[in-house]
Design a protein that fits this description.
Shape: flat
CATH class of the largest domain: Alpha Beta
Helix content: 25-40%
Structural class: alpha+beta
Radius of gyration: 28 Å
């Protein structure tokens, strides 16, 4: 916009004593509001973007001017470059209007493929706003689902698999898939499958006018080992068996699991079973051997790690750590938007829907959509505690506790869940978390957790606090 167009728009708003669908006033004489991200998000998610004018008071319907323009622009640049989900390039206009200096900022529309644009410190969906009339409001759950259904930000497995061509896919494996789906196999003169059909399955897509493998297509159907090609070197599942209950103990087995995703799933599963104990149980008149952890729960959690890994993160591995008293699975990428530790059992959202679909076709996800339910059910059948979940900034962790934790009560599990989030707790914190529980009961719960090696007390007696021992 030109300076004249901006002034005309401001005059129009002042004449109406109102902001507009593409115009917002901020008094902000010497600083920017802490919630300016709401306006940035709303305009970025609006067709055509919008204009934020600093130095005009909506309440007074008057121009009040701005001080500290340099500082204000530096803070705004930080928001646009670092704090929003998509880097936006606004236009800044310092304008003299009615004898006062104002700052007008043109917020561009976020590319449709990367909507919604949200405020990263708050996350999704609460950090995403849209414009409705002349006000900004948070997107609804329904609007959020509509956005992510078409957003490339959440369809990375459909993007182009870098440094690959159609020839890098295994026709034998693809044929197996098509037969399982009972699809007609059409071959051309070069014995290649119908590319339109493979596009419908998300295995191929057109990039620059040429059919090439998608990320999902290559990771599931590669004829070679993906991890031997850039940039897939760290799409590895790193498995380690420790002798003790912490990472400082001796490593007695380890493996970097490579290959296509189905191979990684199988080999990781075999590694865990090889490295956990078996015990004998009596069923009726028969003596049976049983693994320390339910096999079905282990397999589901590995499948979930493969499906929900954030494959945009190429700097680190999926990690499986088998300790003497537990199993930890740490996966790159925090929970998908809209999914929390609290609603993880009911949420139905996959970060990589094509990967999930093709692995289901290959019979690796027979109970697709019920994975967490199966884990909870099987752990209960084994009389083991429910799995612990920890949602971190760039990782998600699941912890399966072994038999030594069988006697944990609900209060103790609640304290462990809190420690996974907060990192430490005091007795006073426990009284708030376990409202109504006698102090003596809380002390006994903490003592028992300490004795079985779950928590560690730290600090002096007056200011003692507890952290997880693992």
């Amino acid at each position: 916009m030109t300076e004249a167009q901006i002034i005309e728009k401001i005059k129009h708003g002042l004449a109406l004593s109102s902001e507009l669908s593409d115009l917002e006033f901020k008094t902000a004489r010497s600083n920017i509001p802490n919630d300016i991200w709401k306006s940035i998000s709303a305009f970025a998610n609006r067709r055509g973007g919008g204009l934020i004018v600093f130095g005009v008071s909506q309440e007074l319907n008057a121009v009040v001017g701005c001080d500290c323009l340099d500082m204000m622009q530096r803070k705004l640049i930080e928001y646009f470059n670092d704090k929003m989900s998509f880097v936006l390039r606004p236009e800044y206009h310092v304008i003299n209007f009615e004898g006062k200096t104002i700052l007008a900022v043109e917020v561009p529309q976020c590319p449709k493929d990367y909507m919604p644009c949200w405020y990263k410190p708050v996350g999704l969906p609460n950090g995403a706003y849209i414009r409705e009339g002349n006000t900004s409001r948070r997107i609804t759950d329904s609007e959020f689902r509509t956005y992510i259904a078409t957003s490339k930000e959440f369809q990375f497995d459909l993007s182009e698999a870098a440094n690959t061509t159609r020839s890098n896919l295994s026709d034998i494996k693809i044929l197996g898939l098509l037969k399982k789906r009972e699809l007609e196999v059409k071959r051309g003169a070069e014995s290649r499958f119908d590319e339109g059909l493979l596009q419908n399955l998300g295995i191929l897509s057109k990039f620059d006018g040429e059919y090439k493998p998608t990320v999902a297509g290559y990771l599931v159907f590669a004829k070679d080992i993906p991890q031997e090609r850039t940039p897939y070197e760290r799409y590895v599942i790193r498995c380690v068996r420790y002798a003790g209950n912490n990472a400082a103990s001796e490593i007695i087995d380890s493996a970097d699991i490579k290959g296509t995703l189905d191979v990684q799933l199988d080999d990781s599963y075999k590694f865990i079973l090889k490295n956990i104990r078996k015990t004998s149980i009596i069923v009726g008149t028969k003596r049976l051997e049983q693994f320390e952890y339910p096999e079905a729960a282990i397999r589901e959690l590995i499948a979930n790690a493969v499906i929900h890994r954030d494959y945009k993160i190429i700097e680190t591995y999926t990690q499986i750590k088998v300790f003497s008293d537990r199993i930890e699975i740490l996966n790159p990428g925090s929970l998908p938007p809209g999914v929390t530790v609290e609603n993880i059992r009911d949420a139905q959202f996959s970060r990589n829907s094509i990967i999930a679909g093709r692995l289901r076709d290959l019979d690796y996800l027979e109970e697709y959509g019920r994975g967490i339910d199966i884990v909870l059910k099987k752990m209960a059948e084994w009389r083991l505690p429910s799995p612990l979940f920890r949602n971190l900034v760039n990782n998600f962790e699941v912890i399966l506790l072994g038999r030594k934790y069988r006697k944990l009560n609900e209060r103790q599990v609640k304290l462990i869940d809190t420690l996974l989030v907060k990192g430490k707790i005091t007795v006073q914190d426990c009284q708030k978390i376990l409202k109504g529980t006698p102090r003596a009961t809380i002390n006994k719960d903490l003592r028992d957790l300490k004795n079985i090696g779950v928590i560690t007390p730290k600090g002096a007696s007056v200011s003692v606090f507890y952290t997880l021992a693992f």
